[in-house]
Amino acid sequence: MTKNVYFFGKGNADGKAEMRNLLGGKGANLAEMINLGIPVPAGFTITTDVCTAYYQNNKQWPSGLEDEIKANLKKVEEVMGKRFGDLDNPLLLSVRSGARASMPGMMDTILNLGLNDSTVQGLIKYSGNERFAYDSYRRFIQMYSNVVLGFEYSNFENILQNKKREKGVTLDNELDANDLKEIVILYKELIKNKLKMEFPTDPWVQLQGAINAVFSSWMNPRAITYRKLNKIPDEWGTAVNVQAMVFGNLGDSSATGVAFTRNPSTGENKFYGEFLINAQGEDVVAGIRTPQQISLEASRAWAADNGISEEERKSKYPSLEEYLPECYSQLVELRKTLEDHYHDMQDIEFT
Length: 351
Fold this sequence. Notes:
The chain is of the alpha+beta class and about 350 residues long. The protein folds into three domains: about 1-115 and about 200-245, ATP-grasp fold, A domain (Dna Ligase, domain 1); about 125-200, Acyl-CoA Binding Protein, CATH 1.20.80.30; about 255-350, ATP-grasp fold, B domain (D-amino Acid Aminotransferase, Chain A, domain 1). It has helices at about 20-35, 50-55, 65-80, 120-125, 130-145, 155-165, 175-195, 205-215, 220-230, 280-285, 295-305, 310-315, 320-325, 325-340, and strands at about 5-10, 10-15, 45, 85, 90, 95-100, 110-115, 240-245, 255-260, 270-275, 290-295, 345-350. It has a six-stranded antiparallel sheet with strand order 2-1-3-8-6-7, sandwiched between helices.
Protein backbone atom coordinates (compact mmCIF):
# COMPACT_ATOMS: atom_id res chain seq x y z
CA MET A 1 0.00 0.00 0.00
CA THR A 2 1.26 3.50 -0.85
CA LYS A 3 2.36 5.51 2.17
CA ASN A 4 0.58 8.87 2.11
CA VAL A 5 1.36 10.26 5.57
CA TYR A 6 4.80 10.65 7.21
CA PHE A 7 5.09 11.17 10.98
CA PHE A 8 7.69 13.26 12.81
CA GLY A 9 8.13 13.77 16.57
CA LYS A 10 9.97 12.82 19.75
CA GLY A 11 13.24 11.99 18.03
CA ASN A 12 11.68 9.90 15.24
CA ALA A 13 10.84 10.89 11.69
CA ASP A 14 9.57 8.79 8.79
CA GLY A 15 11.06 11.27 6.33
CA LYS A 16 14.37 13.05 5.67
CA ALA A 17 15.75 16.04 3.73
CA GLU A 18 16.24 14.06 0.50
CA MET A 19 12.47 13.43 0.29
CA ARG A 20 11.68 17.03 -0.67
CA ASN A 21 9.79 16.06 -3.84
CA LEU A 22 7.43 13.85 -1.84
CA LEU A 23 7.20 15.78 1.45
CA GLY A 24 7.67 19.32 0.16
CA GLY A 25 10.39 21.63 1.44
CA LYS A 26 8.82 22.27 4.83
CA GLY A 27 7.90 18.63 5.49
CA ALA A 28 11.34 17.34 4.49
CA ASN A 29 13.10 19.89 6.68
CA LEU A 30 10.83 19.27 9.68
CA ALA A 31 11.76 15.58 9.44
CA GLU A 32 15.45 16.44 9.03
CA MET A 33 15.41 18.71 12.10
CA ILE A 34 13.92 15.88 14.15
CA ASN A 35 16.77 13.66 12.90
CA LEU A 36 19.24 16.36 14.03
CA GLY A 37 17.75 16.37 17.54
CA ILE A 38 16.19 19.82 17.22
CA PRO A 39 13.04 20.38 19.34
CA VAL A 40 10.21 20.34 16.80
CA PRO A 41 6.54 19.90 17.83
CA ALA A 42 5.19 16.52 16.70
CA GLY A 43 3.15 16.28 13.53
CA PHE A 44 2.81 14.62 10.15
CA THR A 45 3.11 15.45 6.47
CA ILE A 46 0.58 14.45 3.81
CA THR A 47 2.55 13.93 0.59
CA THR A 48 2.51 15.93 -2.64
CA ASP A 49 1.28 12.77 -4.40
CA VAL A 50 -1.97 13.03 -2.42
CA CYS A 51 -2.48 16.57 -3.73
CA THR A 52 -2.02 15.31 -7.30
CA ALA A 53 -4.45 12.44 -6.67
CA TYR A 54 -6.93 14.87 -5.09
CA TYR A 55 -7.16 16.83 -8.34
CA GLN A 56 -7.19 13.72 -10.52
CA ASN A 57 -10.04 12.26 -8.46
CA ASN A 58 -12.48 15.19 -8.59
CA LYS A 59 -11.21 16.63 -5.29
CA GLN A 60 -11.74 13.40 -3.35
CA TRP A 61 -9.24 11.85 -0.92
CA PRO A 62 -7.57 8.64 -2.07
CA SER A 63 -8.74 5.42 -0.43
CA GLY A 64 -7.18 4.84 3.00
CA LEU A 65 -6.03 8.44 3.57
CA GLU A 66 -8.51 9.13 6.36
CA ASP A 67 -7.34 6.06 8.31
CA GLU A 68 -3.67 7.03 7.83
CA ILE A 69 -4.32 10.57 9.07
CA LYS A 70 -6.18 9.29 12.14
CA ALA A 71 -3.40 6.80 12.94
CA ASN A 72 -0.75 9.52 12.74
CA LEU A 73 -2.91 11.94 14.71
CA LYS A 74 -2.99 9.34 17.49
CA LYS A 75 0.84 9.27 17.47
CA VAL A 76 0.89 13.07 17.83
CA GLU A 77 -1.54 12.82 20.75
CA GLU A 78 0.73 10.28 22.47
CA VAL A 79 3.84 12.44 22.04
CA MET A 80 2.15 15.67 23.17
CA GLY A 81 0.12 14.11 26.01
CA LYS A 82 -3.08 15.73 24.73
CA ARG A 83 -6.11 14.53 22.77
CA PHE A 84 -7.69 16.14 19.73
CA GLY A 85 -11.13 17.43 20.72
CA ASP A 86 -10.59 16.67 24.43
CA LEU A 87 -12.59 18.83 26.85
CA ASP A 88 -9.88 18.99 29.53
CA ASN A 89 -6.56 19.17 27.68
CA PRO A 90 -7.20 19.56 23.93
CA LEU A 91 -4.56 19.04 21.26
CA LEU A 92 -4.67 21.99 18.88
CA LEU A 93 -3.10 21.86 15.43
CA SER A 94 -1.54 24.06 12.80
CA VAL A 95 -2.12 23.19 9.15
CA ARG A 96 0.34 24.54 6.58
CA SER A 97 1.15 24.04 2.93
CA GLY A 98 4.63 22.98 1.84
CA ALA A 99 5.48 22.78 -1.84
CA ARG A 100 8.79 21.27 -2.99
CA ALA A 101 9.79 24.72 -4.35
CA SER A 102 9.52 27.68 -1.97
CA MET A 103 6.45 29.83 -2.70
CA PRO A 104 6.54 32.45 0.10
CA GLY A 105 3.18 34.01 0.92
CA MET A 106 1.39 32.23 -1.92
CA MET A 107 -0.54 29.64 0.06
CA ASP A 108 -2.33 29.46 3.35
CA THR A 109 -1.87 28.61 7.03
CA ILE A 110 -4.38 27.83 9.78
CA LEU A 111 -3.46 27.96 13.49
CA ASN A 112 -5.27 26.80 16.67
CA LEU A 113 -7.39 24.23 14.82
CA GLY A 114 -9.57 22.14 17.12
CA LEU A 115 -11.12 24.98 19.12
CA ASN A 116 -14.85 25.28 19.73
CA ASP A 117 -17.02 26.49 22.62
CA SER A 118 -16.24 23.30 24.60
CA THR A 119 -12.52 22.79 23.88
CA VAL A 120 -11.81 26.46 24.61
CA GLN A 121 -12.84 25.68 28.20
CA GLY A 122 -10.29 22.84 28.20
CA LEU A 123 -7.64 25.27 26.97
CA ILE A 124 -8.51 27.58 29.87
CA LYS A 125 -8.12 24.65 32.32
CA TYR A 126 -4.79 23.64 30.77
CA SER A 127 -3.31 27.14 30.63
CA GLY A 128 -5.03 28.89 33.54
CA ASN A 129 -5.27 31.84 31.15
CA GLU A 130 -8.72 32.77 29.87
CA ARG A 131 -7.44 35.67 27.79
CA PHE A 132 -4.99 33.45 25.92
CA ALA A 133 -7.69 30.85 25.21
CA TYR A 134 -10.15 33.33 23.72
CA ASP A 135 -7.40 35.14 21.82
CA SER A 136 -6.48 31.79 20.23
CA TYR A 137 -10.15 31.06 19.49
CA ARG A 138 -10.86 34.38 17.75
CA ARG A 139 -7.66 33.99 15.69
CA PHE A 140 -8.73 30.50 14.65
CA ILE A 141 -12.18 31.68 13.55
CA GLN A 142 -10.59 34.47 11.47
CA MET A 143 -8.06 32.20 9.77
CA TYR A 144 -10.37 29.24 9.20
CA SER A 145 -13.16 31.42 7.84
CA ASN A 146 -10.79 33.13 5.44
CA VAL A 147 -8.84 30.09 4.23
CA VAL A 148 -11.53 27.39 4.31
CA LEU A 149 -14.81 29.28 4.01
CA GLY A 150 -13.53 32.05 1.70
CA PHE A 151 -14.68 34.83 4.04
CA GLU A 152 -12.56 38.00 3.80
CA TYR A 153 -10.47 39.07 6.81
CA SER A 154 -11.83 42.62 6.46
CA ASN A 155 -15.25 41.42 7.66
CA PHE A 156 -13.70 40.56 11.03
CA GLU A 157 -11.42 43.59 11.14
CA ASN A 158 -14.41 45.93 11.55
CA ILE A 159 -15.56 44.03 14.65
CA LEU A 160 -12.03 44.03 16.12
CA GLN A 161 -11.47 47.74 15.45
CA ASN A 162 -14.87 48.67 16.89
CA LYS A 163 -14.10 46.76 20.09
CA LYS A 164 -10.70 48.48 20.42
CA ARG A 165 -12.32 51.90 19.92
CA GLU A 166 -14.99 51.05 22.49
CA LYS A 167 -12.29 50.08 25.02
CA GLY A 168 -10.00 53.01 24.16
CA VAL A 169 -7.03 50.80 23.18
CA THR A 170 -4.92 50.57 20.02
CA LEU A 171 -3.39 47.08 20.10
CA ASP A 172 -5.07 43.67 19.92
CA ASN A 173 -3.11 42.47 22.95
CA GLU A 174 -4.63 45.24 25.08
CA LEU A 175 -8.09 43.62 24.87
CA ASP A 176 -9.02 41.49 27.89
CA ALA A 177 -10.65 38.05 28.11
CA ASN A 178 -14.20 39.40 28.22
CA ASP A 179 -13.56 41.58 25.15
CA LEU A 180 -12.22 38.58 23.23
CA LYS A 181 -15.12 36.38 24.36
CA GLU A 182 -17.55 38.98 22.98
CA ILE A 183 -15.56 39.15 19.73
CA VAL A 184 -15.82 35.36 19.30
CA ILE A 185 -19.62 35.58 19.67
CA LEU A 186 -19.79 38.45 17.16
CA TYR A 187 -17.55 36.59 14.69
CA LYS A 188 -19.78 33.52 14.78
CA GLU A 189 -22.93 35.62 14.41
CA LEU A 190 -21.38 37.35 11.40
CA ILE A 191 -20.60 34.01 9.73
CA LYS A 192 -24.13 32.77 10.39
CA ASN A 193 -25.67 35.94 8.92
CA LYS A 194 -23.37 36.31 5.91
CA LEU A 195 -22.68 32.68 4.96
CA LYS A 196 -25.99 31.22 6.17
CA MET A 197 -24.15 28.50 8.08
CA GLU A 198 -22.85 27.75 11.56
CA PHE A 199 -19.09 27.90 12.10
CA PRO A 200 -17.83 24.24 12.10
CA THR A 201 -17.45 22.92 15.64
CA ASP A 202 -16.41 19.27 15.10
CA PRO A 203 -12.57 19.18 15.27
CA TRP A 204 -12.34 16.36 12.70
CA VAL A 205 -14.57 18.28 10.26
CA GLN A 206 -12.35 21.33 10.86
CA LEU A 207 -9.24 19.29 10.03
CA GLN A 208 -10.75 17.82 6.86
CA GLY A 209 -11.73 21.31 5.72
CA ALA A 210 -8.27 22.71 6.42
CA ILE A 211 -6.46 19.91 4.53
CA ASN A 212 -8.74 20.38 1.52
CA ALA A 213 -8.19 24.15 1.68
CA VAL A 214 -4.41 23.69 1.52
CA PHE A 215 -4.79 21.44 -1.53
CA SER A 216 -7.13 24.04 -3.06
CA SER A 217 -4.66 26.86 -2.36
CA TRP A 218 -2.28 25.16 -4.83
CA MET A 219 -4.68 26.29 -7.53
CA ASN A 220 -5.53 29.75 -6.22
CA PRO A 221 -4.89 32.58 -8.73
CA ARG A 222 -1.85 34.07 -6.99
CA ALA A 223 -0.19 30.62 -6.64
CA ILE A 224 -0.82 29.86 -10.34
CA THR A 225 0.68 33.22 -11.35
CA TYR A 226 3.70 32.68 -9.08
CA ARG A 227 4.32 29.24 -10.60
CA LYS A 228 4.14 30.62 -14.13
CA LEU A 229 6.62 33.38 -13.29
CA ASN A 230 9.00 30.92 -11.62
CA LYS A 231 8.50 27.99 -14.03
CA ILE A 232 7.13 25.64 -11.35
CA PRO A 233 5.00 22.82 -12.86
CA ASP A 234 1.34 22.60 -11.78
CA GLU A 235 1.60 18.82 -11.40
CA TRP A 236 4.13 19.05 -8.55
CA GLY A 237 1.32 19.71 -6.04
CA THR A 238 1.78 20.72 -2.42
CA ALA A 239 2.26 18.69 0.73
CA VAL A 240 0.23 19.44 3.87
CA ASN A 241 1.97 19.74 7.24
CA VAL A 242 -0.20 19.12 10.30
CA GLN A 243 1.61 19.92 13.54
CA ALA A 244 0.86 20.26 17.25
CA MET A 245 0.48 23.88 18.28
CA VAL A 246 2.89 25.60 20.63
CA PHE A 247 1.89 29.05 21.76
CA GLY A 248 3.64 32.40 21.56
CA ASN A 249 0.54 34.20 22.86
CA LEU A 250 0.40 32.49 26.26
CA GLY A 251 1.55 35.63 28.11
CA ASP A 252 4.56 37.88 28.60
CA SER A 253 6.96 34.94 28.96
CA SER A 254 5.97 33.67 25.49
CA ALA A 255 7.10 34.94 22.11
CA THR A 256 7.32 34.13 18.43
CA GLY A 257 9.68 35.28 15.71
CA VAL A 258 11.65 34.75 12.54
CA ALA A 259 15.43 34.65 12.26
CA PHE A 260 18.22 34.20 9.75
CA THR A 261 21.50 32.54 10.67
CA ARG A 262 23.24 35.46 8.92
CA ASN A 263 22.25 38.93 7.78
CA PRO A 264 20.17 38.15 4.64
CA SER A 265 21.00 41.51 3.03
CA THR A 266 24.78 41.51 3.46
CA GLY A 267 25.67 37.89 4.29
CA GLU A 268 27.49 39.14 7.39
CA ASN A 269 27.98 36.37 9.96
CA LYS A 270 25.64 37.86 12.56
CA PHE A 271 22.43 36.34 13.92
CA TYR A 272 19.58 38.42 12.54
CA GLY A 273 15.85 38.39 13.23
CA GLU A 274 12.74 39.82 14.84
CA PHE A 275 10.25 38.65 17.43
CA LEU A 276 7.13 39.73 19.32
CA ILE A 277 6.20 39.00 22.92
CA ASN A 278 2.75 37.46 23.54
CA ALA A 279 1.97 36.95 19.85
CA GLN A 280 1.39 34.34 17.17
CA GLY A 281 3.38 33.90 13.96
CA GLU A 282 1.33 36.06 11.61
CA ASP A 283 1.65 39.06 13.97
CA VAL A 284 5.39 39.36 13.26
CA VAL A 285 4.82 40.18 9.58
CA ALA A 286 1.39 41.85 9.89
CA GLY A 287 2.77 45.29 10.74
CA ILE A 288 0.30 45.82 13.62
CA ARG A 289 2.99 45.94 16.32
CA THR A 290 6.65 46.93 16.14
CA PRO A 291 8.79 43.76 16.12
CA GLN A 292 11.81 43.60 18.41
CA GLN A 293 15.32 42.49 17.43
CA ILE A 294 16.63 39.14 18.64
CA SER A 295 20.22 40.26 19.42
CA LEU A 296 21.25 43.10 21.72
CA GLU A 297 23.66 44.48 19.11
CA ALA A 298 20.94 44.61 16.43
CA SER A 299 18.46 46.10 18.91
CA ARG A 300 20.81 48.98 19.74
CA ALA A 301 21.50 49.60 16.05
CA TRP A 302 17.75 49.59 15.30
CA ALA A 303 17.10 52.08 18.13
CA ALA A 304 19.86 54.40 16.89
CA ASP A 305 18.45 54.31 13.35
CA ASN A 306 14.98 55.19 14.66
CA GLY A 307 16.01 57.91 17.11
CA ILE A 308 15.02 55.87 20.17
CA SER A 309 16.97 56.38 23.40
CA GLU A 310 18.69 53.46 25.12
CA GLU A 311 16.38 53.90 28.12
CA GLU A 312 13.25 53.69 25.95
CA ARG A 313 14.67 50.79 23.95
CA LYS A 314 15.36 48.74 27.08
CA SER A 315 11.93 49.40 28.59
CA LYS A 316 9.74 49.13 25.46
CA TYR A 317 11.73 47.15 22.86
CA PRO A 318 14.24 44.88 24.61
CA SER A 319 16.06 42.29 22.51
CA LEU A 320 15.31 38.58 22.91
CA GLU A 321 18.88 38.27 24.21
CA GLU A 322 17.89 40.51 27.15
CA TYR A 323 14.23 39.58 27.63
CA LEU A 324 14.40 35.77 27.32
CA PRO A 325 18.13 34.97 27.58
CA GLU A 326 17.68 31.19 27.88
CA CYS A 327 15.59 31.08 24.70
CA TYR A 328 18.15 33.25 22.93
CA SER A 329 21.00 30.95 23.98
CA GLN A 330 19.07 27.92 22.69
CA LEU A 331 18.48 29.67 19.36
CA VAL A 332 22.19 30.49 19.05
CA GLU A 333 23.00 26.78 19.50
CA LEU A 334 20.37 25.78 16.92
CA ARG A 335 21.77 28.38 14.53
CA LYS A 336 25.16 26.65 14.61
CA THR A 337 23.62 23.16 14.29
CA LEU A 338 21.60 24.16 11.22
CA GLU A 339 24.43 25.99 9.42
CA ASP A 340 26.89 23.18 10.12
CA HIS A 341 24.41 20.67 8.68
CA TYR A 342 23.09 22.55 5.65
CA HIS A 343 26.29 24.52 4.83
CA ASP A 344 24.26 27.61 3.95
CA MET A 345 22.33 30.46 5.53
CA GLN A 346 19.04 29.25 7.07
CA ASP A 347 15.84 31.04 7.97
CA ILE A 348 14.11 29.92 11.16
CA GLU A 349 10.57 30.30 12.51
CA PHE A 350 10.43 29.91 16.29
CA THR A 351 7.92 30.04 19.14
